[in-house]
């Protein structure tokens, strides 16, 4: 009897593993050229910035963490670019995946950035999927349409060349 139960449990475990393996790793509703899913940044200083309220701006949603080496390399470049192009209508929103225990490190990082930062709280973000790879960013045009899906990029880390090819043309486009 125990052998039969053990075989049943093993079969069920194998079936569950097969089903889980067939599910997308980061299920999301992201389609380039379609409206970006709504998201709101709750900043470290208690403000709330909703993507929907930023129509007319080019928006980069960047997900990062203080313990992420590539993030620490990317953030200064992204901050400088955001500062240089704020007058052109660029807004960067920084979502930290750190937990509340790392607030001192998050504040220290945020103090060096030219864009607002907040804690993400839950790595499962409606419409964007589970944020499992860092850094990852999504770019939204002035009309609220997704123009760059960080999940689809071979190398999603921002470089000056990538910013110049993805974001700069959006900033030069008429409002």
UniProtKB/TrEMBL annotation:
<dbReference type="InterPro" id="IPR013766">
    <property type="entry name" value="Thioredoxin_domain"/>
</dbReference>
<keyword id="KW-0676">Redox-active center</keyword>
<dbReference type="InterPro" id="IPR050553">
    <property type="entry name" value="Thioredoxin_ResA/DsbE_sf"/>
</dbReference>
<dbReference type="InterPro" id="IPR036249">
    <property type="entry name" value="Thioredoxin-like_sf"/>
</dbReference>
<dbReference type="GO" id="GO:0016209">
    <property type="term" value="F:antioxidant activity"/>
</dbReference>
<dbReference type="Pfam" id="PF00578">
    <property type="entry name" value="AhpC-TSA"/>
</dbReference>
<dbReference type="InterPro" id="IPR000866">
    <property type="entry name" value="AhpC/TSA"/>
</dbReference>
<dbReference type="InterPro" id="IPR017937">
    <property type="entry name" value="Thioredoxin_CS"/>
</dbReference>
<dbReference type="GO" id="GO:0015036">
    <property type="term" value="F:disulfide oxidoreductase activity"/>
</dbReference>
<feature type="domain" description="Thioredoxin">
    <location>
        <begin position="30"/>
        <end position="172"/>
    </location>
</feature>
<feature type="signal peptide">
    <location>
        <begin position="1"/>
        <end position="27"/>
    </location>
</feature>
<protein>
    <submittedName>
        <fullName>TlpA family protein disulfide reductase</fullName>
    </submittedName>
</protein>
<keyword id="KW-0732">Signal</keyword>
């Amino acid at each position: 009897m125990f052998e039969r139960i053990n075989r049943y449990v093993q079969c069920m475990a194998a079936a569950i593993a097969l089903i889980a393996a067939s599910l997308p790793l980061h299920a999301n509703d992201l389609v380039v050229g379609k409206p970006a899913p709504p998201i709101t940044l709750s900043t470290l200083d208690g403000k709330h910035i909703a993507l929907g309220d930023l129509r007319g701006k080019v928006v980069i949603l960047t997900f990062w963490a203080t313990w992420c080496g590539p993030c620490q390399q990317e953030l200064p470049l992204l901050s400088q670019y955001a500062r240089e192009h704020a007058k052109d209508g660029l807004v960067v929103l920084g979502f930290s995946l750190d937990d509340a225990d790392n607030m001192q490190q998050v504040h220290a990082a945020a103090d060096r950035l030219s864009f607002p930062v907040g804690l993400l709280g839950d790595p499962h973000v409606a419409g964007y999927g589970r944020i499992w790879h860092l850094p990852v960013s999504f770019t939204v045009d002035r009309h609220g349409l997704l123009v760059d899906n960080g999940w689809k990029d071979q190398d999603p880390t921002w470089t000056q060349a990538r910013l110049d090819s993805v974001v700069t043309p959006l900033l030069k486009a008429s409002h």
